[in-house]
User: What shape does this take?
Amino acid sequence: MAENLLTATGLEVIYGGRRGVKVLHGVDIAIRRGETVGIVGESGSGKTTLGRALLRLVDVSAGSIHFDGREITHLPEAEMRPLRRRIQMIFQDPMASLNPRHTIRRILVEPLLLHGLAKNAAEAEARVAKILERVTLPAACLDRNPHELSGGQRQRIGIARAALLEPDFVLADEIVSGLDVSTQAQVLKLLKGLSVDLGLAMAFISHDLSVIRAVCDRVYVLRFGKVEEEGACAEVFANPKSDYTRILLDAIPLPEINPGWLDPKTGIEDAA
Ligand SMILES: Nc1ncnc2c1ncn2[C@@H]1O[C@H](COP(=O)(O)OP(=O)(O)OP(=O)(O)O)[C@@H](O)[C@H]1O
Ligand SMILES: [Mg+2]
Assistant: This one.
């Protein structure tokens, strides 16, 4: 069994200071190297908060977080900085995280130089060209601004940007929610392929169980800021232990008929 990369024990998060509202009530989670873990639950159950707490983007009021064998729960930001490259995030709305005034070239090249992953601009550009091919985007995209791309293309840029930094861990929060079903399938398949190639560990947040089922090895079901159920994806989907999980499973909407699903090259089923 692979070793744990990112673990949290007894995580609590309170929004609004001491007299605020507690939204995580002692969450335990462990993500192994190379593993894709799903975090699922109703709106407001605390999925995004848990993701942000794991990345040290929101303070925790109790519990501990370890990354790569080191406790990071209260690590000062200056000491977190070297770890930040190794922990990447892909957002639901890439528009909000891509500078609208920058070209895609600049958006992809700059972080490589900033983190010293490329010696010079030429080397950075060569890497960018390679990753662009990997996420199946034409080189012509490089001279465009984010708003000149489609939603699916923007999401591929977000993935490319994260992958370029060779992280150990990627948090993906509802990254396909805004996309149509066939674009969802392509983006998920791409991300899953990259995670296998790069040995990435991923936490995949989604309220959509069919998305979780397509890409995750294990799943955590969150309810009111607590882990309601956890286990191998296949096991939880086949035999949910909790009534809450069963209700979530029953709520998976019936899919619309889409001829693309019959095409094995684009089907979600072969994403794994
Ligand atoms: N910055 C904040 N300040 C105060 N309360 C917050 C803040 N962010 C989230 N909350 C509250 O914390 C709870 C958990 O929110 P969170 O965003 O983690 O849920 P979620 O499971 O990601 O939901 P969704 O599926 O809608 O994205 C909610 O009740 C929410 O209103
Ligand atoms: Mg959320």
Q: What stands out?
A: The chain is about 35% helix and 25% strand.
